[in-house]
Amino acid sequence: MDGLPWQVQAMAIVDANLAGKRLVIEETGTPVEKLRVQAFRPPPVGTGQVLVRMLAAPVNPADLNFIEGTYGVQPVLPTTPGVEGCGVVETSGAADYQPGDRVIFLRRAATWATHTVAAAETLFKLPTAIDPLQAAMLKVNPATAWRLLHGFGKPEAGGWIVQNAGNSAVGRCVIQLARAMGLRTLSLVRRPELMAELTRLGGEVVLLDDEAGLAAAKAALGGATAALAFNAVGGDSALRLMNLLRDGGVHITFGAMAKRPLTVPNGLLIFRDLQLRGLWVTRWIEHAPAAEVRAVYADLAARVTAGTLVQAVDSTHPLDAFPAALARLTAADRAGKVLFVPCC
């Protein structure tokens, strides 16, 4: 089916007796060493379940942590990784879903596979016109950016938010969503070649994440301070963000790229009353009212469909080429997300 529009591919019928393919791990450890390709037959669909043929599934840091055994949820082995992805309904045991519906998964659903069975209540139906690669990345990064901007108090119109890892997928989503909200963003990045791209994306100020960058950030703010700071790095980078917050400002950690803890000077807590919070979007999905979660994803899906919320794609790979996919994650020239396209 190469070359056909994905809408046409999505309506293809898979022979129920045809074996599928999936990536599995039988023990935790280094992903490239522990993953293997396995043929399997998709199980029968029960009442309230849906068989989904996968169109695309990204490789996220959470997936790698899951394989390594360092994620917040430990795998029940053997298992197929994949916390998010986009697929098309093949067989439905639920009244709300019909063959041909495009969906994403709001729970981890073993998406590194050609097919997966999920409970209908854990799915979200997508607009027909949405791009499948963009849809595959909808669950984690856009929702994380949304929660960062809405879950900890909303800054005043024209106010500042500051973030590190501004070139990350979440950072890019923050820039796009904040601009639509009338907020100004100051983003710190590790490499100078990233700065122009983020400015074109709508970043108000983009600077290097070092002590000189901190001084330049204070000058750029012109005496203003930020209500919110979004930390995906930790260590000294997290502390630089704290020094850009107003008294009583909120510092939210949602990642730990530097694998270094936060060391907070006492004075920032005693005299400036900074609030230190954390965000794990999975917890929000599981505990927030279902209507709230679905309303957020409806909004985000509409933005993605309209092309006003876009994530960069570096490369796509079949399941068999997982070593090449994993190698792209550390490539110096990587320019976006790496995704599996299991059925294409």
Task: Give a verbal description of the structure.
There is one protein chain. Strands 3, 4, 5, 6, 7, 14 and 15 form a 7-stranded mixed sheet that branches. A 6-stranded parallel sheet has the order 10-9-8-11-12-13, with helices on both faces. Helices cover 31% and strands 24% of the residues. 42% of the residues are buried. Mean pLDDT is 93; it is low at 1-16. The longest helix is centred in the C-terminal third of the chain and has 17 residues, at 290-306. The protein has 2 domains: 6-137 and 311-340, Alpha-Beta Complex (Quinone Oxidoreductase, Chain A, domain 1), CATH 3.90.180.10; 143-282, NAD(P)-binding Rossmann-like Domain (Rossmann fold), CATH 3.40.50.720. The protein has helices spanning 6-10, 31-34, 61-68, 132-136, 141-150, 169-180, 195-201, 211-221, 235-242, 266-270, 281-287, 290-306, 322-329; strands spanning 20-24, 36-40, 49-58, 86-92, 102-105, 115-119, 123-125, 160-163, 184-189, 205-208, 226-231, 245-253, 275-278, 313-317, 337-340.
Short summary:
This protein is of the alpha/beta class. Helix content is about 30%, strand content about 25%.
Give the SSE map.
Layout: H1 6-10, E1 20-24, H2 31-34, E2 36-40, E3 49-58, H3 61-68, E4 86-92, E5 102-105, E6 115-119, E7 123-125, H4 132-136, H5 141-150, E8 160-163, H6 169-180, E9 184-189, H7 195-201, E10 205-208, H8 211-221, E11 226-231, H9 235-242, E12 245-253, H10 266-270, E13 275-278, H11 281-287, H12 290-306, E14 313-317, H13 322-329, E15 337-340
Parallel strand pairs: 8-9, 8-11, 9-10, 11-12, 12-13, 14-15
Antiparallel strand pairs: 1-2, 3-4, 3-6, 3-15, 4-5, 5-7
Helix pairs in contact: 5-6
